Amino acid sequence: MKIMPLTLIPMLGLFVQGPPPFKPSTSPVSDALRNALASASKNLVGSAELMPADKYSFHPTPAQMTFGQLVVHIVQTNVALCSGISGTTAPLTPVDMQKMSGTDAKDALVGSIKRSFDYCSDALTKVDDSRLSEEVTMFGRPGGLSRGAAIVILAADWADHYSTAASYLRLNDILPPTAQPKK
Questions:
Q1: pLDDT at 143
Q2: Which of 12, 36, 57, 80 is deepest in the core (most CB within 10 A)?
Q3: H or E element: which one contains 76?
Q4: What are the two backbone dihedrals, phi and then psi, of residue 84, each rounded to the nearest 5 degrees?
């Protein structure tokens, strides 16, 4: 008689009970963005924290951004797109964002990326799908894209930025947040 491994017993419950019931949303696109925000914030802030300060100037090739420039780019993207999507006033002006530099101290850049995700989290709280076709406004000017397009772009940017950050970390023998051992 073979004994079933204990790890398989809970999985059998899924087959007997089935998946959890589907709960439709009145704003599935906006809800999906908020779900993506939670993991993007964790992974991108975690990446900024994991990279040593002396490696913020690292870039694999001269044509690529340094890690510090990547963090600045993430902050700028978060502020511009979350402001446009939500219709809220951005916490940084375009001039403030131009003053940011990839050579700023690690602590300052980590603080900036954390604040940008905090802003996105607050700004996107009340966004729903009722105005996806409307043009977004960024910094008082038309953004040239719909709210729905801005949502898709922002979610794709977070994935792209994390891929880049994870690659930079791995090239420096550091496991990115999603590869870190479970605690």
A1: 79
A2: 80
A3: helix 67-86
A4: -65, -45
C-alpha–C-alpha distance, residues 135 and 112, integer Å? 27
Element spanning 124, H or E: none
Domains with residue ranges and CATH for the chain: 30-176 (1.20.120.450)
CB atoms within 10 A of CB 26: 9
Q: Structure pTM?
A: 0.85
Question: Is residue 83 within 8 Å of residue 90, measured between CB atoms?
Answer: yes
Using CA atoms of 139, 145, 150, 156 in order, give the dihedral in degrees to the nearest 10. -120
Tokens of 120: 């996105």
Q: Is the dihedral of CA 142, 160, 113, 104 positive or negative?
A: negative
pLDDT in tens, 21-48: 878 889 999 999 999 999 999 999 999 9
Amino acid, res. 66: T
Summarised one tens digit per residue, pLDDT across range 137-179 is 887 788 789 999 999 999 999 999 999 999 999 999 999 999 9
CA distance 83 to 150: 10
Nearest to 98 by CA among 66, 73, 63, 64: 73
Please check whether residue 119 is in contact with residue 82, taking contact to mean a CB–CB distance below 8 angstroms: yes
**Residue 170: how many other CB atoms lie within 10 Å:** 12
